[in-house]
Structure formats: C-alpha cells, structure tokens
Design a protein that fits this description.
About 30% of the residues are buried. This protein is rod-shaped. The mean pLDDT is about 90. The protein has three domains: about 80 residues, Winged helix-like DNA-binding domain superfamily/Winged helix DNA-binding domain (Arc Repressor Mutant, subunit A); about 100 residues, 3-Layer(aba) Sandwich (D-Maltodextrin-Binding Protein, domain 2), CATH 3.40.190.10; about 100 residues, Periplasmic binding protein-like II (D-Maltodextrin-Binding Protein, domain 2). β1 and β2 form a beta hairpin. Helix content is about 40%, strand content about 20%. The strands form four sheets. The chain has a five-stranded mixed β-sheet with strand order 4-3-5-12-6, with helices on both faces. It is α/β, with parallel strands linked by helices and about 300 residues long.
C-alpha cells in the first residue's frame, strides 16, 4: 500500500468508475485495476462491489474514511519535508545582545516571519559572553553581538558598527563644550555597565590611554537602563545612538572626538555547524542582508 494507491482508490470512489478514475489520474485502466486488486489482496478484504456501478463494501467505507485522513497527513508531511529541505521551514534558536536584541531584531524578525511563515523561532537575550558559551554548547544556532574572543570553534562575520555617543543632562557643563574627548570624561560621574560587558571593556581600554584624575564611576547593570539614569541627573554615559530615538526629555547627546569607542557587531555561528542547515541558512542570510544596510564598518 502506498500513497498513489490510496489516491487511486479515492478517485474511483469519487468518480464512481474505474475508467473515469484512470482518465483523471492519466493511468491506463489496467493499472488502476491492478492497484485495487493488489490493495484488496494486501488487506485481505474486498473494498469495492463491481457491477453496473461501484459501491463500497462495509470494509471499503471504513477504509475510505481512514484513507482520506492518511492522504491529507501524508501530503502535509511531504510538504513539511520539502519546506525543511528548502529552508522554508524549521526551528532556529537565536541569541542576541542589546541593543540589537531590543532595537533592531524585532523589526528584522517580523519581516522574516512574513517571508517564512512556517519557521519557528526562539530568541534568547543575554550578554555576549553568555550567548557565545550557549552557542558553543549547541544550545543556540546563531548569535548577534559584538566581536567575541574567537577560538577555533566560532566564526564571526562583522556586519555593522554600533555607534556610541555621550548622553548627558541638558544643563551639564559638557553640553556646551565645543569639543569633547575621552579626557573630558574625567571629573564627571560616568555611568558604566557591568565589568563583563564588552562595551565597558572597550570604554576602559580607551580611557586607559587618556590622562587625568581618576574616574568617578557608578555601575548600572543594564545597558538599556543607562539613559534613564542620565535623565534622572545621576551622571553621564556613553550609550548606543540607536537607543536614543527619541532622546529622553531633559538630555542631549554629543559625539566624542578622537579615539572612537564604537564597536563592530555581527553574526556568529559554530564552525562545526557548517554547512548550515537550510532553516539556519535562510535566517542567517536574511539577517545579514538587513544588517549590512546599517553604517559600514
């Protein structure tokens, strides 16, 4: 018994004739007859009463009802397998760090799901280090974050530059300064993220090259929360420009002159996962196409 035989049986029942079923299926009538004879032989029961017309036996009625569901399920299965092989369907686990996770990825994934409605996605939002560890353990398929400390197991493709600006209360002394460099940050309370945050590490490396009094810092555990602490007047902070749309009331932002604190960001996969599965490749290529439209690295 196979799917073709089930469809032949259903065509006979629907048309009421071996001959008309053969014409609809573009088979020779002998082929149709042989398929039904073999089907009845395999089942050990008669399914059709042959006479002036075709009528179902009791076993035939039961078989017909069940075969309708079987054919639909098989067709859906075949379609799902085809979609899976072509990258039109599948399950992909994404990891993303802020601000990309909150400010860029939602719009990208909405477009992706419109284009690939059969895809199933999950998104894990965390820091770059934690995401890369999960990727290495096989718990994620792709990660969007800043450039990691690469070993032999990860492949990083840079896609855009995360631009940082200095956010401050609008009445802050630096708001009217003609030029602001890293040296000017000393002497003011600087709000910073957690020690493990790549953005903080980059900032610290820039500040180590500047001269002046020790930094006055206040640690804020969330990158996305920094702008609200600045708004409250607690200090100044270097924040991703993408998070300032709109700019919080009562604050202004300025660009730093000199050595940039901007960071290269991109997409990461495990080298051992190449060639990527079709569903992962579909998402990877779609994200890359969307993100390369951002400022060039």
């Amino acid at each position: 018994m196979d799917l073709k035989t089930l469809k032949t049986f259903q065509a006979i029942v629907q048309s009421g004739s071996f001959n008309r079923a053969a014409e609809e299926l573009n088979y020779a009538q002998s082929t149709v007859t042989m398929q039904i004879q073999k089907l009845e032989s395999d089942l050990g029961v008669q399914l059709l009463e042959r006479g002036k017309g075709i009528t179902l036996t009791e076993a035939g009625r039961l078989f017909h009802e069940q075969s309708l569901r079987i054919v639909k399920d098989m067709e859906r299965l075949q379609s799902s397998i085809t979609d899976l092989k072509s990258g039109e369907a599948g399950n992909v686990r994404i990891g993303a760090a802020d601000p990309t996770a909150s400010y860029r990825l939602p719009v990208i994934l909405q477009k992706f799901m419109t284009r690939f409605p059969k895809m199933e996605l999950s998104v894990d939002i965390s820091g770059s280090g934690a995401l890369c560890e999960r990727l290495l353990r096989g718990e994620l398929d792709v990660v969007l974050c800043s450039a990691p400390e690469l070993g032999k197991e990860l492949h990083f493709e840079p896609l855009f530059t995360e631009v940082f600006v200095l956010l401050m209360p609008e009445d802050h002394p630096l708001a009217s300064a003609p030029v602001i460099t890293a040296d000017h940050l000393r002497g003011h309370r600087l709000l910073i993220t957690a020690p493990t945050c790549p953005y903080r590490k980059k900032l610290e490396s820039v500040l180590r090259e500047s001269a002046g009094p020790p930094l006055n810092t206040m640690e804020i555990g969330s990158m996305s929360a920094l702008k609200f602490y600045v708004q409250s007047g607690l200090g100044i902070a270097l924040v991703p420009e993408v998070t300032l749309d709109p700019v919080p009331p009562g604050t202004v932002f300025r660009r730093l002159e000199g050595k940039a604190v901007d960071m290269t960001c991109g997409i990461i996969c495990r080298i051992g996962d190449y060639p990527l599965k079709p569903a992962i490749r579909s998402l990877y290529d779609f994200i890359r196409q969307e993100l390369v439209m951002l400022p060039v690295i």
